[in-house]
Amino acid sequence: MRCPFCGEQDTKVVDSRLYGDGDQVRRRRRCIVCGERFTTYEVAELDLPRVIKRDGTRVPFDRNKLRAGLLRAVEKRPVSADEIDTVMAHICRQVLATGASEIKSRDIGEFLMDELRGLDQVAYVRFASVYREFEDVNAFREEIERLERQPSPELRRAQLDLLNDLESK
Fold it and tell me: Is the residue at 1 inside a domain?
């Protein structure tokens, strides 16, 4: 790994740890020449399916586009970088789990909305308003009312914990 400070090719790994949901490796490195320390992240590169856009064109899955949409939705919201990384990992896992060679962009958008609903409701409404092309205030009102009828993320987790306890008995 090349040192970002002096450009030297020879660096030493000082520490390695699992990161995120255990599907990434975080490495602390030190440059042999200048002594500066820096962090790198390793992620397995998987063949994600091609994306079928609304107009029918097919493009390669682009993590950067997904991250940009997510970042726009959570802008100025109390969402940490770790939470963003976790959401990204969950969505990529869901896309891979379909087992398909192609996936509709609409399905990826739904995966993202499900994640945002549990992460930050304001970010969810922001994303949904663009993604579902809200035309007026009534569309916002209807989506907010739908959100209010659903259990909170904390309550949903508690319900899942109860279901898991029942299944293990």
Answer: no
Q: Is the pTM for the entire model greater than 0.70?
A: no
Counted domains in the chain: 2
Rounded to whole angstroms, the Cα distance separating 106 from 56 reads 12
Residue 139 is encoded by which pair of tokens?
A: 């569309």
b (16+ CB within 10 A) / e for 128-155: beebeebeeeeeeeebeeeeeeeeeeee
CA distances, 146 to each of 22, 88, 94, 137 (Å): 34, 25, 24, 14
Instruction: Say whether both 108 and 59 belong to one domain.
Output: yes
**Tokens 């409404």 belong to residue:** 125
Note the pLDDT tens digit of each residue in 82-96.
899 889 989 998 999
* 103 & 146 share domain: yes
Q: Are residues 57 and 36 in the same domain?
A: no
